[in-house]
Write a structure and sequence with these properties.
Helix content is about 40%, strand content about 20%. The protein is α/β, with parallel strands linked by helices. Helix 1 packs across helix 7, helix 2 packs parallel to helix 4 and helix 4 runs parallel beside helix 5. The protein starts with a strand and ends in an 8-residue tail after the last helix. The protein binds NADP nicotinamide-adenine-dinucleotide phosphate. The site of NADP nicotinamide-adenine-dinucleotide phosphate (NAP) has 27 residues, from helix 1, strand 2 and strand 5.
Amino acid sequence: MRRLLITGAGGFLGWNLCSLLAAEWEVVGIVRSRAAALESVRGIVLDLTDSVRLRQVFHEVRPDGVIHAAAMAKPDDCELHPRESARINVDTPILLAGLCAQARIPLVFTSSDLVFDGRNPPYREEDPVSPVSLYGEQKARAEAGILERYPDAAVCRMALMFGDGGPHGESFLGPMLRAMRRGDELKLFVDEVRTPLWGRDAAMGLALALHRASGILHLGGTERISRYHFGLMIRDALDIRGSRLTPSHQRDVSTRAPRPPDVSLDISRARRLGFRPTPLMEALQRLKGAWQSPRSGERA
Ligand SMILES: NC(=O)c1ccc[n+]([C@@H]2O[C@H](COP(=O)([O-])OP(=O)(O)OC[C@H]3O[C@@H](n4cnc5c(N)ncnc54)[C@H](OP(=O)(O)O)[C@@H]3O)[C@@H](O)[C@H]2O)c1
């Protein structure tokens, strides 16, 4: 079996990747503080910003492919920790690109729709980047650095993701569902539009990229929807009574990182490669079905 190195293996996307790919690959997962997501995955504890150890581990593991899903993934955290976030979000992926280029193995990097300012959606791969937050800027710098060192790498810009994240990871859906069930008021933006993507589909898109793509690839969902309308859909699909969703505007809520209004992704290129994301309502109903099965405790 060929060996796949997945970084961020304890995180939300890492769990989805490990769940999907552990049957096809011998998966080695890099984790930092959380445990490896699956028993079938060999976990290696490593702070990826330790470049000496990262080189050592890379040469010891001798992977046949790498999916890099580790990051400081919350824009507000990046604004709060600019130097630390630059190390993991920019320096580490560029170092990995050099290692993969030398070893001539495929590399998939998880970038973000937040490389765009949200004023000219939907965005295609060739549109110029225009980040408004430090996180978006770091992803854009990483993309450029990776492709300079390794033009055959696949740089996948991920849309907002939702779904199950395994025992340790979670998407924004987890805190949202808990708040909805408690009956807390949730202020959700009507003027922030995304193309949300089910984590399971995201993993499938990245697997496709590993086999078939190089350069930039947009991986988003099928629908353009505001946070507020997505909240209503989640409430209805999961039948959460007593939730209080209040429509609000970006200007009403202050956040540390600036937020672009509409970073909808055009996924035509991924579609041509065979990417078929699940419609939102269907994905939510399938999540509900999985959570209600007697074998699985509800995680979100
Ligand atoms: N979630 C989304 O909606 C979304 C949207 C667009 C793009 N993305 C991108 O998709 C990727 C995966 O995101 P996610 O939602 O799965 O994030 P996540 O759940 O926060 O997982 C990220 C993982 O990276 C690990 N990590 C962070 N710093 C590290 C370090 N110095 N050394 C080793 N591991 C480190 C974390 O480990 P610890 O927890 O142990 O620190 C965590 O498990 C990221 O590149 C993110 O920027 C996510």
